[in-house]
Amino acid sequence: MTKKIARGANFNNPSKKRFSDRFYEKFLRLVMVVVFVAVIVGGEYIYKQIDTPLSRIIVGGEFKHLQKEELANLVNGQIDGGFLSMNLNQLRDQLQGHPWVHEVSIRREWPSTLKVEVVEEVPIARLGKQGFLNRLGDQLEIADNSNLQSLPVLRAEFGSTQDMIQQYQLLAELLIPTSLKLTELQRDSVGAWKASAAPGIRLVLGRDEIAEKIRRLVIVWQSGLSLQSDNIETIDLRYPNGLAVSWKESVLARSDGQILLKNVSSSA
C-alpha cells in the first residue's frame, strides 16, 4: 500500500519560533536599558559641565542706608551650589528677611554670573525718639537720621511695633478725605489710642472700633467742622454715637454774632 505525501505542505517548528520571540524581546529590553543609562550618564555629564561654580556676583540697586558690601557678604554666605544648583528661592527668602530689604529679584547669567537686584526699604515712621520702622513694623537702624525728623512718631506701651504700624497705616488712609496728616500715634499701657494731626489737633480714640470712629470724624469734618480746623485743640471720639470738640484756650471766635463755646458736642 502506497502512502501519499501531500505536496507543498509547511513544516513550522513552534519551539524555534518561541525561542526567536524571546530573544528579540530580551534584545529590545537590553537596548532600552542601554539607552536609558546613556541618557542618565550623558545628562549628568552635561549638567556638571553647565553647573560651574559661580565666579561673579553682581549686587545692584539704589541705596541710602544699605551697604553693597553688606549685601554682597550676605549673598556670599548663602551660596550653596553652582550656576544651576544654586537655590534662588532660598537666597531670595534670606535677603528679604533683612529689615532694610523691601524686594529682591535674582537671575542667572551665563556662564557663571549671579545678578541680584535689591529695592531698599523706606522708613515711614519714627519709633519714639531714636528708632525707625518700615512698612512691616520692623525696626531699622539709621546712623544719620537728621533728614527723617519730619516722619510721624509712634509710641507704644502696649502691643507690638507691627500693631502700631498697621494701625498707623489704616488711620492715615482713613483720614485722607480730611487732609489731616498724622504726626503722632500713641498707645498707652491699657491699649488706648491717641493721635495728633496737623495742624496741631489731638484725637482721643479709646481702645475699640478705631476705624469706625475715624469714619465718623470724616463725616462730621466734611459737614463743616473743617472750617474750624485752626481753632480745634482736641476731638474726643470715645462716644458711641458722636464726638466732642474742645477749642483752643486762646480762641474767641465769633460767627454771625454767636460765640463758639470751648466744649461743643457733635453727633453724626
> For the report, how would you describe the main beta sheet?
10 strands, mixed
Rg from alpha-carbon coordinates: 38 Å
Shape: elongated
> How many domains?
2
The total beta strand count reads 15
Which percent range fits the helix content?
A: 25-40%
Name given to the CATH architecture of the largest domain = 3-Layer(aba) Sandwich
CATH class of the largest domain: Alpha Beta
Tell me what portion of residues adopts beta-strand conformation: 25-35%
Please trace the helix and strand order, writing H or E for each element: HEHHEEEEEEHEEEHEEEEE
How far do the termini sit from each other? 131 Å
> Which structural category do the helix and sheet elements fall into?
alpha/beta
Question: Average pLDDT value?
Answer: 80
As laid out across the biggest beta sheet, the strand order is: 6-5-4-7-8-9-10-11-12-15
Structure description:
The protein is an alpha/beta fold. The chain folds into 2 domains: 56-120, Roll (Ubiquitin-like (UB roll)), CATH 3.10.20.310; 125-267, Rossmann fold, CATH 3.40.50. It is built from 5 helices and 15 strands. It has a 10-stranded mixed beta sheet with strand order 6-5-4-7-8-9-10-11-12-15. A 3-stranded mixed beta sheet has the order 1-3-2, with helices on one face. Strand 10 (201-206), helix 5 and strand 11 (232-236) form a beta-alpha-beta unit. The model is unreliable at 252-268 (pLDDT under 50).
